[in-house]
Amino acid sequence: MPLKKRLSNFAERNNGLFAPEKITSILLGTAIVSFSIYNIHQQANITEGGVLGMILLLNHWFGISPSLLSPVLDAFCYALAFKYLGRNFLKASIVSTLSLAGFFKLWEQLPPILPDLSAHPLIAALAGGLLVGVGVGLVIRQGGSSGGDDALALTISKVVRCRIAHAYLATDIAVLLLSLSYIPLRCIAFSLVTVTVSSLMVDFVQNLGRKRKLEKY
């Protein structure tokens, strides 16, 4: 088959999948998530749930860079989720996974931009949860995932038929229990605040404006 024909078929199959506004939203979302993890969570010793929490857990115990952990853990979760979420989801998620790893690498080259909130864990938990929730929500709105935990939560939500916020909380709490191995119980309590806020924000951003659109039709 001629190259021109192959390119035409590829563009036809992926019409809208890599639209500029879609890519922009994914890049913005992953930038916000990685910025929050590096500048708030890691500095204030507050963890996240899901794969993000596992990244912090493995980074603490083994010193492995988040820019390496992120794509490896994501690939594992995507392999589990592929059956339920489809090929287009995987394509969009590859973009977001590489973007997330790239932004982690970028922030690691810079000193923390935000002030250290270690002395104010509740503020750190609320701010971190808010930013992560907004970032993840932006990516999910575009049919992708900012990480393997999103893919896992979306799969659980689809299989069990529950709200995505509930699926996030289930995976987050499991990781938080493991995080007790290096984070004091008091800090885990604040981590529970951040995962609750982020789960609710993902749900809110994902559905923002959609109910209004449905009402028009």
Topology:
Blueprint: H1 3-13, H2 20-44, H3 50-62, H4 66-108, H5 121-141, H6 148-160, H7 164-179, H8 185-207, H9 210-216
Keywords:
globular, mainly alpha, 217 residues, 79% helix
Characterization of this structure:
The protein has helices spanning 3-13, 20-44, 50-62, 66-108, 121-141, 148-160, 164-179, 185-207, 210-216. Helix 2 crosses helix 4 and helix 6 packs across helix 7 (164-179). It has 217 residues and is mainly α.
Rg on CA atoms, Å: 18 Å
Q: Point out poorly predicted stretches.
A: 1-15, 212-217
Largest sheet: none
**What share of residues is helical?**
over 70%
Please indicate the percent range of residues in DSSP E strands (runs of 2 or more). under 5%
Mean pLDDT: 79
Number of helical segments? 9
Question: What is the gist of this entry?
Answer:
By secondary structure, this protein is mainly α. It is 79% helix and 0% strand.
